[in-house]
Amino acid sequence: MKTKNAIMTIAITSALMTTFTACQESQRENPLLQESELPFGAPDFSKIEYDDYLPAFETAILNTRENIHAIVIQDEEPTFENTILPFEESDRLLDRVGRVFFALASADKTPEISEIEKAVMPMLTALDNEIKFNKQLFERIRKVYDNEYASLEGEEKKLLEEIYKDFVRDGALLSDEKMERMKAINIRLSDLEQQWGDLLPEATNKALVWVENEDELAGLSDADKAQCKKDAESAGGKAPYAIVIVNTTQQPLLTSLDNRELRRKVYEASIHRCDGTNEFNTYALVSEIATLRAEQAEIMGYPNYAAYALERSMAKTPENVYAFLKSLIEQYSPKADAETKAIEEFAQQTEGPDFKLQPYDRFYYSAKMKKQLLNVSDDEVKPYFNVDSVLINGVFYAANRAYGLTFKERTDIPLYNPDMKAYEVFDKDGNSKALFCCDYYRRPTKRGGAWMDGFAKQSRYFEQKPIIFNVCNYAKAPEGKPSLLTWDDVTTMFHEFGHALHGMLSDCNYNRLSGTSVARDFVEMPSQFNESFASIPEVFDHYAKHCETGEPMPADLKERMLKSITFQTAYALGENLAATCLDLAWHMLPSDGVPAAEGASAFESEALKQIGLLNEQIPPRYRTSYFNHVWGGGYSAGYYSYLWTEVLAVNIADIFAQRGALDPATGADFCNKVLSRGNTGDLMQMFTDFTGMAQPDASGLLKARGL
């Protein structure tokens, strides 16, 4: 039962009076500060205006400060009831405001949102410092930890442990001098990451390649040409056509472009989008961020930031991660060399014996080779991957078969973009579980990539059901045409929905522990596992239907297409390994060993050379200068988690396959032992409870990738 604390009630009442006064002055209630009347308490975007955000943040920050103050001024001895639970509640209003705002800051970053973010981030950083280094607050938390930790059980024990350890890791035990330095670092890092978040999308948007003549687009489908025309119009129409740059190094259209010079331009635009060869250069930000992170770690007594960051992960240490990576590199390298040689020899059959394969050629000739050997191409299969069918008849269908979930579209819930959709999610007994929203189409105000987040996390303590959303960057077809996906797009949708399931099926008491609040090298497991449903025959047949005729994909095309999934997959593994090793290399440096901006590119090359991954043909999935996961996305020293959790996912998929891939009992078991539990227990134990395996088995990873 939810405990009410009298002192907290007084503080919250005081904050609400402040809110009421502010709203009286503006003659308008701020919808961000009111309990939403929409289902699930969803934010009402039909009422929210740009001018609401800053006052809402100011009031919510004041509310949090007053709630913290109410905790520390108590005369009573600290207990779980009067300290830990009020602390869990202390930023609830701020969390609600922030979740709405930062959803837009990533998915619809208009100039107005950008300016508000610049004003808000220093305020939030200051508040964060106040709380992290509040000695009176930490002293109360420490007393509860010393006196009650041994006697608590279940989620209460875990909640106390997480809060206490968070404070310790943030520097609560530091000397005053070191504490002040940590505060300064936190402020500066917040500013630098804000600059990164502004610079990278702008650089990526402006890196597009203008095309004057349709003949230059030879090889592209009519749909892709229409998309290039639409993209040119959206970008200002400097030429009739434009090829936009996506967040990864390699670009999807390189598989089809016959014009080699245009392929080169597209590839060069991608890898040089912000490395100083044009008006954009992120290296100064990278150098300073890496230096400050290293200094943070050293202040906390760690040799480098990677050691500090990985302490509470499943991997535990950088050495364990490197051992894992080196075993993969050793097995992967000869396969990658053989793959490159095969593609070059194939290209020489038509281009002559002196032809030298370049990185911008690889996808083009690999696609032609696949077409010749397997008789399948993206243009042939895309008509069967209509975005709506993949969602409804694929993603939702698999979730229904495995977990008993059903989905009902809600048109009565306003969202922040008209292309978005909302669905109410019901369990097998018809109980309403969650609200799921999807924002699938790219636009200039959206950062690159794909992700999951939520307007509200699940919490029994707060009596809150989850409101989860997925964001992707698919090309939206011109009016009247179906939006079609590549196979990579299809698996991305399944992947992000795996994260969504982790959030929607959560069944935890406390917000801090629920849903995806787990270590980085565990959080990607449900999403990577969910990708396996995309190719299960029953699921595939249910969604892979022609966008015009509704006919299922013919059996022979289906067979060829599914075989093609593992065709020449060394590249995909290699680009991931290279990006992972770059991340670790930067975060293994001491603070006095981080290269300056002008040395960043050389450092990248040397780091890849040392680990055996300097390969012009297989560049990192993200180069240092546009590696958003690491410098702006929260994955610092953690990008390895995609490969680490892929091992977990393969092991779990094997269990599903043994028991029946869509067996409801297996789905219920996985939900009960993993998806619903958030961070309420030991993560390795959760894995063991479901699989029966004491440790993950990495031997199946290369096999699963067709290597």
Tags for this entry?
Neurolysin, domain 3; 5-stranded mixed beta sheet; single chain; two-stranded antiparallel sheet; 27 helices; 707 residues
Mind explaining what this structure looks like?
It is a single chain. The chain is 56% helix and 6% strand. By secondary structure, it is mainly α. The protein starts with 5 loop residues before the first helix and ends with a helix.
SSE layout:
Layout: H1 6-26, H2 50-72, H3 80-89, H4 92-107, H5 111-132, H6 135-148, H7 154-170, H8 176-206, E1 209-211, H9 222-234, E2 241-243, H10 260-271, H11 283-299, H12 305-310, H13 318-351, H14 359-374, H15 378-381, H16 387-403, E3 406-409, E4 421-426, E5 432-441, E6 451-456, E7 467-474, H17 487-504, H18 520-530, H19 537-543, H20 555-564, H21 570-587, H22 600-611, H23 628-631, H24 641-659, H25 664-675, H26 683-691, H27 700-704
Parallel strand pairs: 5-7
Antiparallel strand pairs: 1-2, 3-4, 4-5, 6-7
CATH fold annotation of the domain at 382-564: Neurolysin, domain 3
What fraction of residues sit in β-strands? 5-15%
Distance between the termini: 52 Å
Highest-level CATH class of the domain at 382-564 = Mainly Alpha
Question: Strand count, sense and closure of the main sheet?
Answer: 5 strands, mixed
As a whole number of angstroms, the C-alpha radius of gyration is 26 Å
Compute the number of helices.
27
Q: Indicate the CATH architecture of the domain at 382-564.
A: Orthogonal Bundle
Residue-averaged pLDDT:
94
Task: Categorize the overall geometry.
Answer: globular
Let me know the number of strands.
7
* SS content category: mainly alpha
Low-confidence stretches: 1-26
Helix share, percent: 55-70%
The strand line-up of the biggest sheet is 3-4-5-7-6
